[in-house]
Design brief:
Layout (H helix, E strand, L loop, with lengths): L22 E12 L2 E13 L4 E5 L6 H9 L6 E10 L2 E2 L5 H7 L4 E4 L3 H4 L6 H12 L4 H14 L5 H4 L9 H13 L5 E5 L7 H18 L2 E6 L2 H7 L2 E6 L2 E7 H6 L4 H8 L48 E4 L2 E3 L2 H5 L3
Parallel strand pairs: 3-8, 3-9, 6-7, 7-8
Antiparallel strand pairs: 1-2, 1-4, 4-5, 9-10, 10-12, 11-12
Helix pairs in contact: 4-5, 4-7, 5-7
């Protein structure tokens, strides 16, 4: 998606009142055991999503975005574990809960919209049965009632002829229709939090725009908090209120979206902006970021972006903490301390 990343749109008012954040991830570290030893795939990550907000989590493949999302759902791979930190949902701590307890939360209070809807849908079950399944599992409704609610849900996500389509199988749906079915399934029990893990990656630009409009409509209608994971800056600026920039397992920058694009403060964020096509740069040469993301088995001792950074200097051999640029906007870079960011 091509977007004018510097459009300076107003920051949406946030429902940050006396209620707790819908999602709070605090100093989260995740380790993965493999043939080469133990890898730190998420390292001290902290983020918040408040009621009625759409928060973007952006970074290259392998930066730790999906692992962060899976940890919220209690769905980490068998060889992965939370090494430290806490995760809470509306003030309730999720870390340390049993699998049985998490089954009562997944789909009920937190729902996942995956990247590949066709793989997530069961190919031998009708779509209406799958969309209505949360009502059977969590609300103990009968098959008929669940089907009726599934049709209503499919209609609510603007699936044409929902009653007919509910009786069809996933392979009879287009990619956009499959994604709408997954969104409907996620909305079934009106969760407090939706986690959308790159749900528009496999869709063409027109269908992608439709899905983004639908997510905004869900937020505006239900006040649902949404954590949107992507590698696409264009999607971030179109959809999100706040954004966290993740690299090699760490959060390097966080800010309201408009502020981030107007005043990016970490060299990695600036590099991402320079390498992303926008309305203003259609006829300009896009710049690539040299090098590659470090292996989680061999993270550098200092700033993890230093080897690829054109502004690195002596202090970059030590890892900085996140420093405040202004209220709500922080970046993990020594240049801020030097006054040169």
């Amino acid at each position: 998606m091509n977007a004018d990343l510097g459009n300076g749109r107003d920051i949406r008012p946030h429902a940050r009142d006396d209620r707790p954040a819908t999602l709070r991830v605090d100093d989260l570290s995740i380790e993965f055991s493999g043939a080469r030893g133990t890898a730190r795939v998420v390292d001290g990550a902290s983020l918040e999503v408040w009621p009625g907000e759409i928060v973007g989590l952006i970074g290259e493949s392998g930066s730790g975005k999906t692992m962060t999302a899976l940890s919220v759902l209690g769905l980490l791979p068998k060889r992965a574990r939370i090494a430290s930190g806490t995760i809470s949902l509306a003030g309730e701590t999720l870390t340390g809960k049993s699998e049985r307890e998490m089954r009562g939360i997944r789909g009920n209070r937190v729902a996942l919209i995956p990247q590949d809807a066709l793989r997530a849908l069961n190919p031998v079950l009708r779509v209406g049965r799958q969309v209505g399944e949360p009502y059977e599992l969590h609300r103990r409704l009968g098959r008929t009632q669940s089907h009726e609610r599934a049709v209503d849900l499919l209609d609510s996500v603007h699936l044409p002829d929902a009653g007919v389509r509910a009786r069809e199988y996933p392979h009879q749906y287009s990619g956009g229709m499959q994604q709408r079915a997954m969104i409907a399934m996620g909305l079934a029990l009106e969760p407090e939090l939706l986690i959308a893990d790159e749900p528009t990656t496999a869709l063409d630009v027109t269908v992608q725009a439709q899905v983004l409009r639908l997510l905004r409509e869900i937020r505006d209608t239900h006040g649902t908090a949404i954590l949107f994971i992507t590698h696409d800056l264009g999607v971030i600026v179109e959809l999100c209120d706040w954004v966290y920039v993740m690299y090699a397992g760490a959060i390097l920058e966080r800010a309201p979206v408009a502020r981030l694009f107007e005043r990016p403060s970490h060299p990695y964020t600036r590099a991402l902006l320079r390498s992303t096509p926008t309305v203003r740069t259609v006829q300009e040469e896009l710049l690539s970021i040299p090098g590659q993301i470090p292996s989680p088995y061999e993270l550098p001792e200092g700033c993890r972006f230093a080897d690829r950074c054109e502004r690195r200097f002596e202090r970059c051999t030590r890892e900085p903490e996140i420093m405040e640029v202004e209220a709500g906007h922080g970046a993990r870079c020594w240049l801020l301390d030097e006054g040169g960011a």
